[in-house]
Amino acid sequence: xxxxxxxxxxxxxxxxxxxxxxxxxxxxxxxxxxxxxxxxxxxxxxxxxxxxxxxxxxxxxxxxxxxxxxxxxxxxxxxxxxxxxxxxxxxxxxxxxxxxxxxxxxxxxxxxxxxxxxxxxxxxxxxxxxxxxxxxxxxxxxxxxxxxxxxxxxxxxxxxxxxxxxxxxxxxxxxxxxxxxxxxxxxxxxxxxxxxxxxxxxxxxxxxxxxxxxxxxxxxxxxxxxxxx
Length: 229
Known about the structure:
The protein is an alpha/beta fold. The chain contains 12 helices and 5 strands.
């Protein structure tokens, strides 16, 4: 049974952002309404009884920025990966005109390795980041969860490869990457049983892990560097 009372260690040294979020910052400072779009697979959409991170993010940000109407729009679809997500960027992301886009990628490329080519997934991520770079919105990539289905002896190498590709894509595009994989791996290194980090499926994150990942993400967003120039 997971210890839901366990303190949440967010390890900012692993998840702090390298780049400013100027569009989100301006929206929060100058507008009453701020819109964030989250796009991805089941880690975004949510499964079964675990409230997914977009809804938790919305609640925490509304509390932190009292008086602002912050909407976090959930555009997750279970089982999808970057190529399918890219195909719905226009209606699901761009048409919403958000100040921040959080794009969760990579999980299904590893979990359903036979269905995806890593080079094609990487290319889709690069194309998507290129599209968004021309628009007045900030972008954050979120990488894989560190759960048993993704770090078993037959998957760990694939997961580490995909995590590296996501980091490289973010660095090349100059966008922030939320290092979920590294954060959850640190929890395991800190003696939290990996069995307690999933919801029993061995793939999706548990109640505690989902809540703590969200807290870490909020810390990264709020603590992003200030824009210069």
